Amino acid sequence: MLAARRTIVPALVALVVLALAAGAPPADAAVVKVSMTARHRTVPLMPGLRFAAWTFNRSIPGPVVRAREGDTIEITLRNADRMHRHSLDFHASQVDPLRAMADVPPGKTRTFSFVARRPGVFLYHCGTSSVLQHVGQGMYGAIIVEPAGGRPPAQEIVLVQSELYGRVRGRVLRSTLKDMLAMRPRYTAFNGSPFRYLRRPLQVRAGEPVRIYLVDAGPSMGSAFHVVGEIFDAVQPDGNPVSPREGVSTWSVPAGAGAVFELTFDEPGTYTFLTHELGLAMKGAVGRIVAR
């Protein structure tokens, strides 16, 4: 029997609210084929400002990868950067990194695979030295590994928090390793754009379950995630459904980690979400959810 296939979710589609129904586990483990291209690109950051970035598939963050526990993730990385080596480090993997996550030279392509043995929400990023610079320039994204039996139906949101460093020249933010080592970000962001969800709030239905997948890409600072006016029904560190924390108002996710937040908005309204490390929130890691 041929193995089933699932694919990566385009970033601009996945980083919005999605309603998903829980499904039965597949008869056979799937092969999830992931194609990534590393390249330099100036990307929109917020109105009137762009960012000289290093990207996976032309966006920050890179595309969301979704799989099921037991699936094989087959990654093909093409390096379209003419100057730098790049690689892919999936925090959902359990493999020898020197073998599986080796650098890809400019102009070359490399394929490797791993079995997603544990459910959760995890970071992936470029693991080439200096990792700080490659992540700080934008080379990161989220991978969601669903439990073998799926999750209960919910409205779903994927958020990747990150820091942005550098100086603005000619309406373009340009960063260096020196900026990142100083650990004084100019901006912070959810899904690659400071204040994105203040400009365009997310929309959900009140009275129905909401699931937030959060990954903190860093590269150096964590997220004290909080939704004003609500308490999480459950928090799953790293997205593992075993032993969730119940009745939590704020949960800290360190750089490089993730969590799943389950909640229901009891009444219609506009709810602010943010990192409760307020100095970072004021630089862009803040948004709103409108429950109708």
Q: Under the CATH scheme, which architecture of the largest domain would be assigned?
A: Sandwich
- Helical amount: under 10%
The helix/strand class is mainly beta
CATH superfamily of the largest domain: Cupredoxins -  blue copper proteins
Per CATH, the class of the largest domain reads Mainly Beta
User: What would the CATH topology of the largest domain be?
Assistant: Immunoglobulin-like
Query: What would the average pLDDT be, to the nearest integer?
Result: 91
Order of helices and strands: EHEEEEEEHEEHEEEEHEHEEEEEEEEHE
Task: Please explain how this structure is put together.
- With 292 residues, the chain is mostly beta strands.
- It has two domains: 147 residues, Immunoglobulin-like (Sandwich), CATH 2.60.40.420; 136 residues, Cupredoxins -  blue copper proteins (Immunoglobulin-like).
- The protein is built from six helices and 23 strands.
- Strands 1, 3, 4, 6, 8, 12 and 13 form a seven-stranded mixed beta sheet that branches. Strands 2, 11, 14, 16, 18, 19 and 21 form a seven-stranded mixed beta sheet that branches. A five-stranded mixed beta sheet has the order 15-23-22-17-20.
- Strand 12 and strand 13 form a beta hairpin.
- The longest helix has 6 residues.
- The chain is globular and about 55 Å long.
